Amino acid sequence: MSMLLGTTITISSNHWMMAWTGLEINTLAIIPLISKSHHPRAIEAATKYFLAQAAASTLLLFSSMTNAWFTGQWDITQLTHPKSCLLLTTAVSIKLGLTPFHFWFPEVLQGSSMTTSLLLATLMKFPPTTLLVLTSQSLNPTLLTTMAIASAALGGWMGLNQTQIRKVLAFSSISHLGWMTAIMHYNPKLTLLTFYLYCLMTSAIFLALNTTKITNLATMMTAWTKIPPLTATLMLTLLSLAGLPPLTGFLPKWLIIQELTKQEMTPVATAIALLSLLGLFFYLRLAYCATITLPPNSSNHMKQWQTNKPVHIPTTTLISLSISLLPLSPMIFTTT
């Protein structure tokens, strides 16, 4: 309830102090969920999350106070002072985990449970993304583009050598944030569309992993014996998150590249399209491990007999949407 309250306060506020209050409520609400298991790894993750979010909230408050000092405006959409814009970009980048402020995000996700990781990767990113969208016309487009290319590069490069699924999805999140940031200044509605589709696909993957109890590549190789249909559709969802046509994940990348080309930013579009190939490699590796019947190497994890564990309706619904929404793209074109 506190997380929903904090998110609602931030996305519906016009005053910087109210937006900051909502972000603080969100931070204080998620920390008990991260540290719920009382494991040292979870406590470490909660501490890292608190320090990163506290620093970001301080910078955000300092940015709004600086803007109010010079312009007399506390309205979110009236952020006009250059130093305030720079401070706000830094603060929101820390909250989202954009490069070069990504250091905390993979570690926190790895130390959290699957359900908490899902909240961190989707719901907790909504308020900072909303603040970026509201102030997008005031922010420096060159800085945003640089951070976008760096995030796409680092998200793809660092995900290559990971064996823990949560860390792979963390670097996937950083890479997708790079795509959203690249188009932020030119088409904020497209940024929100990309964020919604990313949340849809990521939620489907996290719920499927939580159902099959997959945590790393070794357990993914032997998970096909538990719920074979779910594992097969998990492969398609991973490929959708990679952005392969004709799956849903291809739609936002297609629209972003098209919009960047319209804005005469073809080199940027080419760069992030090529950098997404790095991410495609580890998505393909995950999809391959999810569907092979025998691991290529000897596995320490025993194969389990097929279970009768039910797959919940939200999981199947999200997986279906994250695979098959591309035919609805003409309708999305007319709304955006």
UniProtKB/TrEMBL annotation:
<protein>
    <recommendedName>
        <fullName>NADH-ubiquinone oxidoreductase chain 2</fullName>
        <ecNumber>7.1.1.2</ecNumber>
    </recommendedName>
</protein>
<dbReference type="InterPro" id="IPR050175">
    <property type="entry name" value="Complex_I_Subunit_2"/>
</dbReference>
<feature type="transmembrane region" description="Helical">
    <location>
        <begin position="86"/>
        <end position="105"/>
    </location>
</feature>
<keyword id="KW-0999">Mitochondrion inner membrane</keyword>
<keyword id="KW-0472">Membrane</keyword>
<feature type="domain" description="NADH:quinone oxidoreductase/Mrp antiporter transmembrane">
    <location>
        <begin position="13"/>
        <end position="277"/>
    </location>
</feature>
<feature type="transmembrane region" description="Helical">
    <location>
        <begin position="230"/>
        <end position="248"/>
    </location>
</feature>
<keyword id="KW-0812">Transmembrane</keyword>
<feature type="transmembrane region" description="Helical">
    <location>
        <begin position="15"/>
        <end position="34"/>
    </location>
</feature>
<dbReference type="Pfam" id="PF00361">
    <property type="entry name" value="Proton_antipo_M"/>
</dbReference>
<keyword id="KW-0520">NAD</keyword>
<feature type="transmembrane region" description="Helical">
    <location>
        <begin position="142"/>
        <end position="161"/>
    </location>
</feature>
<keyword id="KW-1278">Translocase</keyword>
<dbReference type="GO" id="GO:0008137">
    <property type="term" value="F:NADH dehydrogenase (ubiquinone) activity"/>
</dbReference>
<dbReference type="GO" id="GO:0005743">
    <property type="term" value="C:mitochondrial inner membrane"/>
</dbReference>
<keyword id="KW-0249">Electron transport</keyword>
<feature type="transmembrane region" description="Helical">
    <location>
        <begin position="311"/>
        <end position="333"/>
    </location>
</feature>
<dbReference type="InterPro" id="IPR010933">
    <property type="entry name" value="NADH_DH_su2_C"/>
</dbReference>
<feature type="transmembrane region" description="Helical">
    <location>
        <begin position="46"/>
        <end position="66"/>
    </location>
</feature>
<dbReference type="Pfam" id="PF06444">
    <property type="entry name" value="NADH_dehy_S2_C"/>
</dbReference>
<dbReference type="InterPro" id="IPR001750">
    <property type="entry name" value="ND/Mrp_TM"/>
</dbReference>
<feature type="domain" description="NADH dehydrogenase subunit 2 C-terminal">
    <location>
        <begin position="280"/>
        <end position="333"/>
    </location>
</feature>
<keyword id="KW-1133">Transmembrane helix</keyword>
<keyword id="KW-0496">Mitochondrion</keyword>
<feature type="transmembrane region" description="Helical">
    <location>
        <begin position="192"/>
        <end position="209"/>
    </location>
</feature>
<dbReference type="InterPro" id="IPR003917">
    <property type="entry name" value="NADH_UbQ_OxRdtase_chain2"/>
</dbReference>
<comment type="similarity">
    <text>Belongs to the complex I subunit 2 family.</text>
</comment>
<keyword id="KW-0830">Ubiquinone</keyword>
<dbReference type="GO" id="GO:0006120">
    <property type="term" value="P:mitochondrial electron transport, NADH to ubiquinone"/>
</dbReference>
<feature type="transmembrane region" description="Helical">
    <location>
        <begin position="268"/>
        <end position="290"/>
    </location>
</feature>
<feature type="transmembrane region" description="Helical">
    <location>
        <begin position="168"/>
        <end position="186"/>
    </location>
</feature>
<keyword id="KW-0813">Transport</keyword>
<keyword id="KW-0679">Respiratory chain</keyword>
<comment type="function">
    <text>Core subunit of the mitochondrial membrane respiratory chain NADH dehydrogenase (Complex I) which catalyzes electron transfer from NADH through the respiratory chain, using ubiquinone as an electron acceptor. Essential for the catalytic activity and assembly of complex I.</text>
</comment>
